């Protein structure tokens, strides 16, 4: 049998999966790998009240698409400003997500950062 390194070079696979496959073939025991259980829960799932508070903060600052083509809400409020507003609403520092995470949450909730045009 060829080494995992040689098989890695021939097939372009990683060394660890090749070694695992060789060991499965040798022993007859199939290694199960349930990747779906290894994710960290989303902030929305951990703190549903935070999403309600974010909506309370964002609704007065958001505007619909001027042409009403999409359901997106455009806002000029940044994720850092939302984080500050959550902290002012007495959310503990350790429960409030980082700015980057809050930015992702806002995108998932349908808010887009845009300069709002006066109409």
List the SSEs and their pairings:
Blueprint (H helix, E strand, L loop, with lengths): L3 H8 L3 H13 L15 H4 L1 H11 L3 E3 L8 E3 L3 H10 L10 H10 L2 E3 L6
Helix pairs in contact: 1-2, 5-6
Summarize the structure.
The chain is mainly α. The chain contains six helices and three strands; from the N terminus they run ααααββααβ. Helix 1 crosses helix 2.
Keywords for this structure?
elongated; single chain; mainly alpha; 47% helix; 119 residues; three-stranded mixed β-sheet
Major beta sheet, specifics? 3 strands, mixed
Computed CA radius of gyration, to the nearest angstrom = 24 Å
What proportion of the residues form beta strands (DSSP E)? 5-15%
Helical residue percent band: 40-55%
Q: How many strands in all?
A: 3
Q: Any low-confidence stretches, pLDDT <50, length ≥5?
A: none
Q: Note the run of SSEs as H and E.
A: HHHHEEHHE
Which strand order does the major sheet show? Answer: 1-2-3
The count of helical stretches stands at: 6
Rough shape? Answer: elongated
The class by helix and strand makeup works out as mainly alpha
Residue-averaged pLDDT: 81
- Could you tell me how far the N terminus lies from the C terminus, measured between alpha carbons in angstroms? 72 Å
């Amino acid at each position: 049998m060829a080494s995992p390194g040689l098989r890695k070079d021939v097939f372009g696979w990683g060394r660890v999966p090749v070694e695992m496959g060789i060991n499965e073939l040798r022993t007859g025991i199939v290694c199960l790998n349930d990747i779906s259980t290894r994710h960290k829960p989303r902030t929305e799932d951990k703190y549903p009240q935070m999403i309600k508070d974010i909506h309370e903060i964002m609704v007065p600052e958001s505007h619909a698409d001027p042409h009403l083509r999409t359901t997106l809400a455009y806002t000029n409020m940044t994720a850092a400003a939302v984080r500050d507003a959550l902290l002012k609403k007495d959310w503990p520092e350790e429960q409030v997500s980082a700015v980057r995470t809050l930015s992702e949450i806002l995108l998932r909730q349908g808010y887009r950062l845009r300069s709002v045009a006066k109409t």
